[in-house]
Amino acid sequence: MKCYGIERVEERETWELMEPKERDRGRGDGGGESKEEEGVKMRREGESCIVSRQAQAHLGIHIVGGSYGWKIPPNRTFYGEWAKNKTFIVGDKLVFLYTTGMENVIEGSTEEDFKYCNQNDVVDINYAGPTTVELTKPGPHYFYCGVGLHCEDGEKLYINVENKNTNNN
Q1: Which of 60, 98, 116, 139 lies 20 to 30 Å from 133, alpha-carbon distance?
Q2: What's the CATH fold of domain 61-162?
Q3: What's the N-to-C CA distance of the chain in angstroms?
Q4: Domain residue spans in the chain?
Q5: Would the pTM of this model clear 0.70, i.e. be above it?
Q6: What is the pLDDT of residues 98-155, one digit of tens each?
Q7: Which residues, in sequence order, are bridge partners of residue 63?
Q8: Which is higher by pLDDT, 129 or 52?
Q9: Which residues, other chains included, contact 30 with Cβ-Cβ below 8 Å and sequence gap of 6+?
C-alpha cells in the first residue's frame, strides 16, 4: 500500500490515503473479497498511511508557500510570513512546487547575496520543478528565484535551521 498525492489537512500538508487504483478496488467486480471485507482492509491501510504521514510531518517536510507554491508572491513578505511560525530542523526537507522553465530555486551563500538577489556565489541551483532540498546543517539558509525579477518581486525565502538535538524542555 502506498500513500498518494497531496492534500491539505488541518493547515498542514499531508498525503491522500490511497492510490486511485486502490480506491477503485472492491466495487463488485465479481471476484475476490466482498465490498465489506475490501472496505475494512482499505480503512486499515488508510489508517496506517495516516499514521505514517503524521510521523513524517514531525520529520519536517515543508511545502514552501503551502498551497500557493513557489512563484511570484502576492506581496514581498509572503514567504517570510509563511516561514515565520515554523521550526526548521537539520534533516527537514523543503519542497518547492513550481513549473520547470517558469521558476528555479537558488540556494545563496550570504545574506547580502540574498538581500540583493545576487547569483555570484551560490550553494546550489535547481531548474527542474518540483525541487526538494534537505536541510543538512544548522544556521541561516537563503533561497530565491533567479528568473527575471522574481527575486526582487519577493520570490525569496530566509530560514534559520536548528540542530536536531535542540530541546525546549
Answers
A1: 116
A2: Immunoglobulin-like (2.60.40)
A3: 37
A4: 4-59, 61-162
A5: no
A6: 999 999 999 999 999 999 999 988 999 999 999 999 999 999 999 999 999 999 999 9
A7: 95
A8: 129
A9: none
